[in-house]
Design brief:
heterodimer; A: 101 residues; mainly alpha; 3 helices; elongated; B: 167 residues; 7 helices
């Protein structure tokens, strides 16, 4: 393997951290969904890297499954954002506190 | 340093910088464009890791389908609303949580021995990547594959129900 395994893992860790930072600091629901996509991508990089390291296909198959799940998650998430915008006229998550006690 | 390693470092840097710009830029459309750049770099890294099929799926599904969804929704909700100030809510709490998660993962990485890649003939190369993925997907993982299709069907119906105009 020309690329050291540890460097791929560190790259995936940094990508995940950027996504986590986005989820924790941004208030725009669309940006939060994008950050979740970044984190799923980081997990996927780990699947592919370990598949390469262990020399079997399972990681790649699960990578395909992860992409399918991410597609469904984005579709639902954006539908929720649209419904939110129709009903409350905002996509800023901290302005939606109807369930807060 | 081999050429593949050099390409990996360049791609990884571009991916990380554009990922940072996704969460940094004020305009949601800019975020979406930077997200496409990140996805493309990650797809190229998949090619470097000999996962050509996953790379193709990544480009088709992420850079194609998911980005179109994002752009449509950004344009459906009013853009002025997405241009809000970049307020850092609970910035201290967020950084503490984020730093501890990073430290946790790094400590696991430092403790465990990450073995180098197996030497010898790579199984991933025999008979082509697509053939191997297809065999594995339809022979060993047929049930999860069918469940994934049901999941996508449910997601499709759910998205239609959620986004439909009440009449």
């Amino acid at each position: 393997m020309p690329v050291p395994m540890g460097h791929v893992l560190v790259f995936s860790l940094l990508l995940f951290s950027v996504g986590l930072l986005g989820v924790l600091t941004r208030r725009n629901a669309i940006i939060i969904l994008m950050s979740i996509e970044l984190m799923m991508n980081a997990a996927n990089v780990n699947f592919i890297a370990f598949s390469r390291q262990q020399n079997n296909m399972v990681g790649q198959v699960f990578g395909v499954f992860t992409i399918a799940v991410a597609a469904g998650e984005v579709a639902i998430g954006l539908a929720v954002v649209l419904a939110l915008f129709r009903n409350r006229d905002t996509v800023q998550v901290d302005e939606v506190h109807i369930m807060k006690g | 340093m081999t050429a593949a390693a050099l390409i990996f470092y360049v791609l990884a840097s571009i991916a990380l910088i554009s990922a940072g710009l996704v969460i940094w830029s004020r305009n949601s459309v800019h975020s979406a464009i930077y997200l496409v750049l990140t996805f493309l770099c990650v797809a190229a890294i998949y090619v470097l890791l000999q996962a050509e099929f996953v790379a193709a799926v990544q480009v088709l599904v992420y850079a194609g389908g998911i980005m179109v969804l994002f752009l449509f929704v950004i344009m459906l909700v009013s853009l002025t609303d997405t241009l809000g100030p970049r307020v850092r809510l609970h910035a201290t709490l967020s950084s503490v949580i984020g730093a501890s998660v990073v430290g946790l993962i790094l400590s696991v990485y430092a403790r465990g021995d990450v073995r180098p890649a197996g030497v010898g003939e790579s199984v991933l190369r025999q008979g082509g990547n697509l053939q191997n993925v297809g065999l594995s997907l339809y022979r060993d993982y047929l049930l999860p594959f069918e469940i994934a299709s049901i999941l996508l069907l449910v997601a499709m119906i759910g998205a239609i129900v959620l986004a439909r105009q009440k009449s």
